[in-house]
Amino acid sequence: MIEVNHISKTFGDRKVIKEFSFTAVAGKTNLIIGESGSGKSVTIKCIVGLLEPDAGEVLYDGRNFTKMALRDRKIIRKEIGMLFQGGALFDSMTVEQNVVFPLSMFTDMSESEKRDRANFCLSRVNLVNSNNLFPSELSGGMKKRVAIARAISVQPKYLFCDEPNSGLDPLTSLVIDNLIKEITEEYQMTTIVITHDMNSVMEIGDKIAFIYKGEKAWEGTNKEILDTDNKAVTDFVYAAKFMKALRNK
């Protein structure tokens, strides 16, 4: 379980995150949603330690990550898989080398063990025989699947996905959503997904927090979000539906 308690983050005179709290359910896909510029990506960066919150704390299964010394944080970071927006693959590395990269950083596996693990992870995301391809030879959806294989290679307890469907067509987005949900349930990970995609909300949103201007404005499930009378949420939901209708014309 991941507990986020009253975190805040300011850049200059702009308070981007204001007293944000959220408890992610273990073994489920937990979504943090909101419009562009609402503070979603800053929130996830504070949770994983890429940014330091000005106030508040983040706990991983009761361990206070925020108050840990950097050397102690390494233990938890070994338990984290991260899917960055755009995939963030290393262009100069092959698919296999990209997947093996975190194994070389965080494990003592032999070269053959790392190759076996990479092959298993690539098989799990339906990319068999892609080992020697380079990112430039992959489609957008394939890049995201390689990034997912890399994220799960270290068998993480916690998986973070920042805008996993960014730049993808609706059909490929659905494939990525389903893959994230399947892997979460299969490996009983605690997954947090940052998105503004309502399709993702309805397909995989077990628990949802809605951020509005840096504050948590609503929390619930993908069934409850359609019935809320929270104006900020309804404006977001129906704007997303309107944009989807335009794209489908």
What does this structure look like?
The chain is an alpha/beta fold and 249 residues long. It folds into two domains: 2-79 and 157-247, Rossmann fold (3-Layer(aba) Sandwich), CATH 3.40.50; 89-155, no CATH class. The protein is 39% helix and 24% strand. It contains eight helices and ten strands. The chain has a six-stranded mixed sheet, with helices on both faces. Strands 2-1-4-5 form a four-stranded antiparallel sheet, covered by helices on one side. The longest helix has 18 residues, at 170-187. The model has no long low-confidence stretch (mean pLDDT 89).
Concise account of the structure shown:
This protein has helices at 40-48, 70-77, 95-106, 111-124, 140-152, 170-187, 198-204, 231-247; strands spanning 2-11, 14-24, 29-33, 55-60, 63-64, 80-83, 158-162, 190-195, 207-212, 215-220. With 249 residues, it is an alpha/beta fold.
